[in-house]
Amino acid sequence: QVQMVESGGGLVETGDSLTLSCTGPGRTVSNYAIGWFRQRPGKEREFVAAITWSGTATYYADDVEGRFTISRDDAKETVSLQMNDLRPDDTAIYYCAVNTVGSAYDYWGQGTQVTVAS
């Protein structure tokens, strides 16, 4: 079982920035496309952003486009999610996951809590 690890969450104010990190065992990160997801209170888990294995393409949900940036550093086996201009509606548990095949995401982490105070 591959377990991803997210870090970097915390309590911030509206308009602040935060950077989340995702890492995994061995060369998991550098060998796969990686996605970030979030689960807001009382809501289903939803897609936030993804980056291809090569790092040449990135994808974002509409409500984070222009505010969030996903990037990868394969030498450090890390995928980051830079979140700017945070809003209370961004409050959620953020998860990273490995895109193993097609559109399937496997190998999730335990998540990191992001709370944005108004």
Explain briefly what this protein structure is.
With 118 residues, the protein is mainly beta. 3% of the residues lie in helices and 53% in strands.
Task: Describe the 3D structure.
This protein has one helix and eleven strands. The longest helix is centred in the N-terminal third of the chain and has 4 residues, at 28-31. By secondary structure, the protein is mainly β. The protein starts with a strand and ends with a strand. The strands form two sheets. Strands 2, 4, 5, 6, 9, 10 and 11 form a seven-stranded mixed sheet that branches. The protein has a four-stranded antiparallel sheet with strand order 1-3-8-7.
Fold topology:
Layout: E1 5-7, E2 10-13, E3 18-23, H1 28-31, E4 33-39, E5 45-51, E6 58-60, E7 68-73, E8 78-83, E9 92-101, E10 104-108, E11 112-117
Parallel strand pairs: 2-11
Antiparallel strand pairs: 1-3, 3-8, 4-5, 4-9, 5-6, 7-8, 9-10, 9-11
Shape type? globular
Residue windows where pLDDT falls under 50 for at least 5 positions = none
Fraction of residues in β-strands: over 45%
End-to-end distance = 39 Å
Defining traits:
globular, four-stranded antiparallel β-sheet, mainly beta, 11 strands, 118 residues
